[in-house]
Structures are given as structure tokens and as C-alpha cells.
Amino acid sequence: MTRYILRRILQALLVLLVMSFVIYSLIGLMPGDPLDIMLASNPGATPEVVEHLRKLYGLDQPLMLRYLRWLQDALVGQFGYSRTHSLPVLSVLVPALIQTCKLMIISFIASVILAFILGILAALKPGGILDGVISLFAFAGISVPVFWLALMMILVFAVKLHWFPASGIATVGDGGFRDQALHLVMPVITLALASTGGFTRYVRASMIEVLRMDHVRTARAKGAAEWRVVLVHAFRNALIPVVTIMALSFGVLFNGALLTETMFAQPGMGKMIYDAILGNDFNLALTGLLFATVVTLLSNLVADLAYGWLDPRIALT
Amino acid sequence: MNELVALDGISVHFHLGGGGFLGGKPRILRAVENVSFAIGEGETLALVGESGSGKSTLGNVVAGLQPPTAGTLRFRGRTLDRATWPQARRSIQIVFQDPFGALDPRMPVSAIIAEPLRIQGIGTPAERRARTAALVEQVGLPVDALNRYPHEFSGGQRQRIAIARALAPDPALIVADEPLSALDVSIQSQVLNLMKELQERLGLSYLFISHDLAVVNHLVDRVAVLYLGRLVELAPRQLLFDRPSHPYTQALLHAVPRIGRKRARGQTIKGEMPSPLNPPPGCVFHPRCPKAQDVCRTTAPILEPAPGRAAHMSACHFKE
Amino acid sequence: MSATTATAVPRTEAAIGPWRLRWRRFRRHRAGMASLVVLLLLALFCLAAIPMQHVLGMDPDATDLLARFDPPSAEHWLGTDEAGRDELIRLMVGGQMSLLVGLLATAVGGIFGLVVGVFAGYFGGRVDALLMRFTDGMIALPLLPLLIVLGAVDLTKLGFSSEFARSGAAGFWRIVIIIAIVDWTAIARLVRAATLSIKERDFVRAARASGAGPLYVMPTHILPNVATPIIVAFTLTVGRVILFESVLSFLGFGIVPPTPSWGNMLNNAQELVTTAPALAVYPGLLIFVTVIAVNFLGDGLQHAFDPRSER
Ligand SMILES: Nc1ncnc2c1ncn2[C@@H]1O[C@H](COP(=O)(O)OP(=O)(O)OP(=O)(O)O)[C@@H](O)[C@H]1O
Ligand SMILES: [Mg+2]
């Protein structure tokens, strides 16, 4: 077991290393040149000065060498300065990461609860009307473009009904708990709805399977109340596979979170990376993407380990 | 009788993981260990033994599906290696046990039977079609079988299709890996008769793999008995059935009900075959052998003629 | 020989061809059938733009600054957008774009995944380990950020001319390729698993014993026998790809305006959501309907292909 964990962590680190190089090279392929941007704010620079700066920043060096130098710094936590924010990258990135995690965790919990309720209801009578309606809802959740769902939420609940604010995380001058909560409602609902569809289908499938199993049928035959059969006997058994699949999907949720933030103008990772790319903020974009990779790798790792731990039938070798 | 195929010191070891990066001890499964024998032109040799004794693995080696870990294979006097295998391919074909897995469900029967010809590039399409039609008749299937798919046939019929495929490139040897054991008893004798008839007509050799000595009795010229990957006895049929030399063979025969033989000699085998992952030292049969002595626990016997019978080979310190 | 002649099993119900049986099962899957009809209608809707452009002379790019944000009228059935262009014809042409990207990117990525999966499964050992580590690595990546970076890559830095980099064709192929680059892993894993189960089947071993090499076995025996799960997986991939295209085009990294796609028609919709809500509704609704129909179609196919599903 320890060996398995060690190997998985090693693997994840290797992926991260390769990925950091790929992202580093890709960022170099984005439009613009760090120097051009620097010079734009200082039009008086002579060609000699430009050449000097180029040397100073190592931009005349081959890609591999520049990458290794960057890696050296990154390993000790030096990610450089954000050009657009004029701050060290980490002091921009950490609050954004916290904001994104907040959104993700709240939505995740909401969608898991909703998925369990809907999935169980659908599994009670497969093929029934309720099952049909819930299936339609689940398919809709899988198929809806998240950004458009956000747009429609804004259209209906902010523009037409004025129930919730359309963007930001707090009203200037207010910022109390109630105000902050109101700002979170629509992003959370959007993100939760988008992932509930897939989860509901897993819960339903798992519950149907379990309800067919022998001990559940026995409990029924013994005259246990239907709700007891469903909640006590079946639910417990359906839990394990579903929970692990949900944990695995946490990484996927990240994609949705990035879009939701961008749409509702929440200052999280998604909006940060998006703005950084559009604003040629190389250091920030690079570090943001790396952290996104870390989050995804980490949630996959945890889900994998949880799976092996919960289900002893999977041999961890 | 001319030698057709000869095995010389064939061993097959499977590496079951371990030994690599972060790995534990390497685990080696010795499926076949130092086996030598030959099959003559037109001869049928039976390969018998319990489940897991390495019969299929050895059959795969002969059919070119499993490269041996050690030892060589000769075909008509030529050693088979990377360069010579391609020519030998068309002369050695294989028929499997499970008639349901042996035919591609997505292919019509005509394509299945013609496959070896297509792969080998034998004949024009028209010639291949003619040959396929002839083969279908030869194995006793209606001609309209050609345009149908495997799922439309019964097990016995599928085995006939598999035999027709094996016959297509006009082979000299067919490796038949328990071709009857998945069939109903009534069908078994039909297929067995077909194989016999084809042999007489075409002069084929068979390497007939079976765990059932009774079936073997009808068809074969010689019998090779395999135990834990080792050849323990090799003898002409009559000699083997009348005077089995190795205690293992005696026990095997004892399990076969035969008319006119008292259940006097031979003992039932006790216990189970040990794992080929760590075979016992000395004679691999000693933990189950009624005759086992100290020498059996330390020294492996070699395959030698039984007393007074030059053609009857047996690997036992106390052979009869 | 007559003694051993046997007759074939009579053609019974069970003996009808596998594809007929599947079609029969598919027809019973109501959502799947409805989706098939919806998708055919959608394709017809998008293709109708061709005669409308050539016969009626409607132009999806013709701007009319005097007719911005017009409500629906006899001339413009769905009204006009922020540049006075006819919304209906733009939806139709944009749909062609979105569907084409969906199909092409699925084909490119799917074929790549197919090849990776077949090779990994068939050869096993080192090849398998290498390819699957690669696939696992891909799966572990944050998809959307990666797509955005790939979408932002400056083609001139890769040695393409700047005219080409700005052309519509470049924008189109770039999005097809970047989506294909990130979305092939599901198919690769599926094909690998299926290949693993097929390559040890006796009919494959019989072919190998006759001298067949991998280049014969893969197309002749492996691919036809893994077709079933692959068809379902391809279908579901099309849905996902259409969503990716819409996101990227929406964010401005995909199909470049003025060429319309359902995604980039929503570009400005966010700012305009108060003034012209209809412009934000139509393209998204079409994406939604298309993707949901594709997913239901996949569900129906799965049902039709699953031998355990009743009849
Ligand atoms: N590809 C393989 N990898 C690892 N072990 C194998 C492989 N093929 C066979 N073995 C092992 O080799 C031994 C011999 O197997 P083999 O199939 O040859 O036996 P058999 O005599 O044909 O048995 P049966 O009567 O059940 O068909 C068994 O222990 C088996 O588990
Ligand atoms: Mg066998």
C-alpha cells in the first residue's frame, strides 16, 4: 500500500514536471514578447538598451535553458512578478485560489446532496414517470453549456427578476455576510446544476443495481418498511462506488468553476488565468495554469487512493 | 516413419511481474520444462495430462504462437527460427477447444475458411473461393454454409468450420487442442471420425491434446504424458495402455473406466498438482507418488526406456 | 462423408443479423429515436442555409447599421443582431460550423485515440505502459485552461505566415486540432480494454498461427469486434466537443468572427443581455438541444448494442 501511494505520488510529480515544461513552451508561443511590453511603457529605449535588457532577462538563451532557470526559481517558490497587478505572483494567486475552492466546495456539496435525492427517487421505480423526468433533467445538466446557463441565470434572476446581483462577490460599501451569500447564490447554483446531471445518473445506476441484490430482497421479503429498505440496506451499499466517482469528478468541476467565475465576475482562478492570458501577463498565466494542474492532479490522486481504500477488492500493486 | 516435427529441450517460462522498478522478487512460472519428442509423418501423437500441466502451452509452441524460453523446434529437419518460421506456417495449423471463441463472429464462414490462404497469399481470389467450397464439403457442411455467420451454427458445426480453416493451406500437421471437450458426447464421435477420415485421405499428422485418455485410445499412435510441464512418459499407445510404466500414468489410467480390466493395479492420485511457480525438488511427482523414496526427493529422473521395451520411455526411478 | 453430414441450424429469430437486431432495439428506445429525428432536423436546418444563401441571396455577413437589434419581422424572421445582420441565417451558418467542428474534431481525436488504444492493447508490455502513462498524464490535465492556452498560441511563432494565421481556415483547423489534442483519452482507454479482451481470443490466435501480423489482425479482427463500444463513445464525444467549441469560441479563442459559430455568436451576448436578450437565448438553446440530443442518441445506441438489454 505504501509503495502504491509512493508510486502514485512520484507519477503525479512526473506529470507535473512534464506539464510545467509544456506550459512554459506554450506560454512562449502566445502573442507578444515580454520585452515589447516592457518597452511600450518606455518608448525612449535605444536598440542598445533593448539588447542589454534582452541579455539581462536571458531572453537570448535557448528555450530549455530559460526553462531550467525558471524551474530553479519556481522550486524555491519564486514565481516572479505579475505585470498587470504589479505584485508578486503568489500574492495575486493565493486569494484567487481560495475564492475558487470556496465556490467549488460549496457547489460540490450542493450537487452531491441533490444528486442523491434525485438518483434515489429515480431508482425507486425505473422506467416510471418520475424516473423519466429526472433522467431528462440529468441529461440536460450534462448537455448544457455552463457559460450559457450562467447567462440565462443572469438574464432571468438578475435582469428580469432582480433577485440576485449579477456579478462580483460583494456590493461596494456593504460586504456583510448576507450580501456575500447573495452574490454566491447564482454561481453556486450554476456550477452545481452542471455537475448534478452526471452524479444523478451514477447514483441512479448504482441504486438500481443494489436494490436488485439478494440481501435487499431478503430485507423486503421480511417485511421491512420500504423506506428502511431503500435508505438503510440499499443506500449504504450504493454509497462506495458513487462517492469515489464523485471524488474523481472534482477535477472536472474545476473546468466549470473557471467558466462560472468568468461569467459572474468572481475574482477566482478562472478569471485570473483568463485575464492574465488576454493581458500578456506571462508569469501569472504560467503559475496559474500550473496551480490548476496541481489541483487536478491532487484531486485525482486523492480519489484514486480513496477508491483503493474503500474498495478492498481493488488490489493496489 | 520420417520425422516431421521435433522438439528438442523445449522450456517455456512465464515471468509474472516483479523484479522491475520498485518491484519485489521476480516470479517465474515454469509451464513447460525441457521437453523433447518428435512427431512422424502421418502420425498422431496424443499429449495428455491434468489441467495446468502445460499441454496448451506446448501446443502453442508447436503452432508458433508461443516462442520457447529455451530449446529448439525442427520442421522436416530444419530448425525453426525467425527466418524459417514463415515458410513452416502454412504447414502447421491449429484447432482450438472452444468452437465459440475460435471463429470471428463478424466474418462469414467463407472468409474464415479462406483466411490462412489470404494471409499466406496462396492462390487467386477465384482459386481461393473454389478451394473454400471444396473444403466445406470435405468437412461435411452444406455449401450454403459459406455465406452465413458463425452464430448460425451449432458447436459441432463450428468445429467443422475450424477444421476446414486449418485444412485450407494443405498443412502437414494440425495441432488440435482438446478439440472435442467442448462438444456433446454424440457430436464428439462424429468430429473424431471426421478427423480420422481426413487423416487417412490427406496423410496428416496430429498433435492431439487431451486430458481424456479414453478419447485418445481411438485415434492415436503414440501417447506423451505431461506432468507439471515435464514429459513423464512417452510410448506407443498399446504399450502404454497395457503396461503403463510411470506411477502417474498408472494412476491416470486407473481413473479411466475400461471393460475387462480389474481395478487392481495402480492407485488413485492423492492431493493436487503443485504450482508451477515453485515445483518440488527432485522428481516433481514425488509428493503424490505412492512409490516415492529418498532418491525421488533429491534427484530428478531422466526419460529412459522402460525395462525390456526400447520404444517405451519413462521418467521414473522405479519405472515398471 | 455422408455419415458426417450435418445440416445447419434453421434460421430462427435469434439468427437475424446483429445489425437488424440492434436497429430493432434502438427503435424501442423512445428518447434515442426522438433524438435521431431532432438531429436530422437540426442538420437540415443548418444545411438549408446553402440554398438560402445562393438562391435567395441572403448573406450572413451583410451588416446594416440602420437595422440593429430589429425585432422579428417578415424580412428578418428572428430579427437582427448588433450589426444588423440577419439572426436566422447566422444561426444556420453558425450551426454548420459548430456541427462540422464537432464531427471533425471527434474524428481526428477519435482516430488518434483508436490507434493509441489498439497499439497499447495489442502489443502490451512496454508499449502499453508507455502509451497508458501518456494517456493518464493527459487525463490528469486541467482541460479548459489547456484549451485556452492552446487557443491563444500565436501561429506566426510556429512559422506560419501572418496572413494564414489570421485567415478563417486557420481558425477553423486550429480549433479542430486543439480539441482533438485534448479529447482522445476516453476512446483510447476504451479501445485498449476492448482490444485486450479480443486479442487473446482463439480466432485471433488462429490467424496469428497462420502467419498474420499485427497489421492484418488489427483491422481485420480487432476493429470490427470493438466497433460497438466505439460507436457509442464517438457519439458521446461529439456532444462534448460541441460544448468545447462553444466555450472556446465564446471566450474568443475559437472560430474567429465574422464567421459565425453558435459559440462566438454569444461573444457579445453577455454585454447585450439587457438590451437584446433574444440574441443570448437562440445560439445557446441550439447548442443545448444539439448536445442533449447527441447524448440521448448515445444512450439509445448503448441500449441497442447491449446484448443484456431486453430484446
Ligand atoms: N500466458 C501465460 N502467462 C502466464 N502463465 C501462463 C500463460 N499461459 C499458461 N500459463 C500457465 O502455465 C501453466 C500451464 O498452462 P496450460 O494452459 O498450458 O495448461 P493445460 O495443460 O493446457 O491446462 P488445461 O487442461 O486447463 O487447458 C498453467 O499454470 C498456466 O497458468
Ligand atoms: Mg489447455
UniProtKB/TrEMBL annotation, chain A:
<keyword id="KW-1003">Cell membrane</keyword>
<feature type="transmembrane region" description="Helical">
    <location>
        <begin position="284"/>
        <end position="310"/>
    </location>
</feature>
<dbReference type="InterPro" id="IPR045621">
    <property type="entry name" value="BPD_transp_1_N"/>
</dbReference>
<dbReference type="Pfam" id="PF19300">
    <property type="entry name" value="BPD_transp_1_N"/>
</dbReference>
<feature type="transmembrane region" description="Helical">
    <location>
        <begin position="103"/>
        <end position="124"/>
    </location>
</feature>
<feature type="transmembrane region" description="Helical">
    <location>
        <begin position="12"/>
        <end position="30"/>
    </location>
</feature>
<dbReference type="GO" id="GO:0005886">
    <property type="term" value="C:plasma membrane"/>
</dbReference>
<dbReference type="InterPro" id="IPR035906">
    <property type="entry name" value="MetI-like_sf"/>
</dbReference>
<comment type="similarity">
    <text>Belongs to the binding-protein-dependent transport system permease family.</text>
</comment>
<keyword id="KW-0472">Membrane</keyword>
<keyword id="KW-1133">Transmembrane helix</keyword>
<dbReference type="InterPro" id="IPR000515">
    <property type="entry name" value="MetI-like"/>
</dbReference>
<keyword id="KW-0813">Transport</keyword>
<feature type="transmembrane region" description="Helical">
    <location>
        <begin position="136"/>
        <end position="161"/>
    </location>
</feature>
<feature type="transmembrane region" description="Helical">
    <location>
        <begin position="238"/>
        <end position="264"/>
    </location>
</feature>
From TrEMBL, chain B:
<dbReference type="InterPro" id="IPR050319">
    <property type="entry name" value="ABC_transp_ATP-bind"/>
</dbReference>
<dbReference type="InterPro" id="IPR003593">
    <property type="entry name" value="AAA+_ATPase"/>
</dbReference>
<dbReference type="GO" id="GO:0015833">
    <property type="term" value="P:peptide transport"/>
</dbReference>
<dbReference type="Pfam" id="PF08352">
    <property type="entry name" value="oligo_HPY"/>
</dbReference>
<dbReference type="GO" id="GO:0016887">
    <property type="term" value="F:ATP hydrolysis activity"/>
</dbReference>
<protein>
    <submittedName>
        <fullName>ATP-binding cassette domain-containing protein</fullName>
    </submittedName>
</protein>
<dbReference type="InterPro" id="IPR003439">
    <property type="entry name" value="ABC_transporter-like_ATP-bd"/>
</dbReference>
<dbReference type="InterPro" id="IPR017871">
    <property type="entry name" value="ABC_transporter-like_CS"/>
</dbReference>
<keyword id="KW-0067">ATP-binding</keyword>
<keyword id="KW-0547">Nucleotide-binding</keyword>
<dbReference type="Pfam" id="PF00005">
    <property type="entry name" value="ABC_tran"/>
</dbReference>
<dbReference type="InterPro" id="IPR027417">
    <property type="entry name" value="P-loop_NTPase"/>
</dbReference>
<dbReference type="GO" id="GO:0055085">
    <property type="term" value="P:transmembrane transport"/>
</dbReference>
<dbReference type="GO" id="GO:0005524">
    <property type="term" value="F:ATP binding"/>
</dbReference>
<comment type="similarity">
    <text>Belongs to the ABC transporter superfamily.</text>
</comment>
From TrEMBL, chain C:
<feature type="transmembrane region" description="Helical">
    <location>
        <begin position="276"/>
        <end position="298"/>
    </location>
</feature>
<keyword id="KW-0472">Membrane</keyword>
<dbReference type="GO" id="GO:0055085">
    <property type="term" value="P:transmembrane transport"/>
</dbReference>
<comment type="similarity">
    <text>Belongs to the binding-protein-dependent transport system permease family.</text>
</comment>
<protein>
    <submittedName>
        <fullName>ABC transporter permease</fullName>
    </submittedName>
</protein>
<dbReference type="InterPro" id="IPR025966">
    <property type="entry name" value="OppC_N"/>
</dbReference>
<feature type="transmembrane region" description="Helical">
    <location>
        <begin position="31"/>
        <end position="50"/>
    </location>
</feature>
<dbReference type="GO" id="GO:0015833">
    <property type="term" value="P:peptide transport"/>
</dbReference>
<dbReference type="GO" id="GO:0015031">
    <property type="term" value="P:protein transport"/>
</dbReference>
<dbReference type="Pfam" id="PF12911">
    <property type="entry name" value="OppC_N"/>
</dbReference>
<feature type="transmembrane region" description="Helical">
    <location>
        <begin position="99"/>
        <end position="123"/>
    </location>
</feature>
<dbReference type="InterPro" id="IPR050366">
    <property type="entry name" value="BP-dependent_transpt_permease"/>
</dbReference>
<keyword id="KW-0653">Protein transport</keyword>
<keyword id="KW-1133">Transmembrane helix</keyword>
<keyword id="KW-0812">Transmembrane</keyword>
